[in-house]
Write a structure and sequence with these properties.
binds S-adenosylmethionine, alpha/beta
């Protein structure tokens, strides 16, 4: 059986599985004027760490969606355990099950690189209100590198597509976002600060192969640390 990196994240139940972790999410959201009437879609919510935080901290109207049934189940377990009144739904970002103009903000944290952006980014634009905003945290190549050098990355993160900041900017503009701002946040990994480290909710029984895939991921990130960075894209419709 061939396990994908995304299967691995789901089975290990990795929460905060995006560059910068919950710390970066909190910093970005502090710049927004969030309140109980703000409608937010957490597209590709994973185990729901971000959704639970926003619902608790700001009381926003939250919708959490992911296309992985295990992730959806674990997000709902998190919401139940934390008494957060949310229910994650299964669905795909390429075909969002929501009416046009439904959300003030769509948040997408390390998700779009795994999607078909010719469909997912226009879908996000469609479900946003006329003055809505997409906040996307995505890995970005610091410079264009040859396909051959990308092969090991492609091997581990199958179906992922690695883009430069410029390529992401173009994709967002092409989908109709009027302004696109790319930020290069500095977030220091700090083992003492739980907001900078992921949390886990393991499935049982656990095949040890998943720990190997995670180890490969950590080694891969290290070996590409000068080539592969990340950006927070703030895109206004
Ligand atoms: C790297 S994880 C990030 C999860 C979460 N945003 C976080 O920061 O912890 C990527 C997530 O995107 C989800 N995903 C990937 N492709 C998707 C798609 N086409 N539609 C919906 N969710 C998708 C995966 O199942 C996974 O939960």
């Amino acid at each position: 059986m061939n396990y994908s990196y995304l299967d691995c994240l789901a089975v290990l139940g990795v929460g905060g599985a995006h560059p910068g972790g919950l710390k970066l999410t909190k910093d970005l959201l502090a710049n927004e004027n969030l309140n109980e009437s703000t409608k937010i879609l957490d597209a590709g919510c994973g185990t729901g760490q971000t959704s639970a935080y926003i619902a608790r901290e700001y009381g926003c109207h939250l919708t959490a969606l992911d296309n992985n049934a295990i992730m959806v189940e674990k997000a709902n377990e998190r919401f139940l355990a934390g008494e957060v009144p949310l229910k994650a739904v299964e669905g795909t970002v390429e075909e969002l099950p929501f009416a046009g103009g439904s959300f003030d903000i769509v948040l997408s944290e390390s998700v779009l690189l795994f999607t078909d952006i010719a469909k997912s980014i226009p879908e996000i634009a469609r479900v946003l209100k006329p003055n809505g905003k997409l906040i996307a945290i995505e890995m970005a190549m610091e410079s264009k590198i040859r396909d051959k050098e990308l092969e090991p990355l492609k091997g581990l993160y199958e179906n992922a597509y690695f883009r430069t900041e410029e390529e992401w900017n173009q994709a967002f503009s092409h989908a109709g976002f009027k302004t696109v701002k790319a930020e290069k946040p500095e977030v220091q990994f700090d083992p003492e600060d739980i907001d900078t480290v992921p949390d886990y909710s393991l499935s049982e029984p656990m095949d040890p192969v998943y720990f190997d895939i995670m180890k490969d991921h950590e080694e891969m990130m290290k070996s590409y640390e000068n080539t592969l960075g990340f950006r927070a894209f703030i895109c206004n419709k």
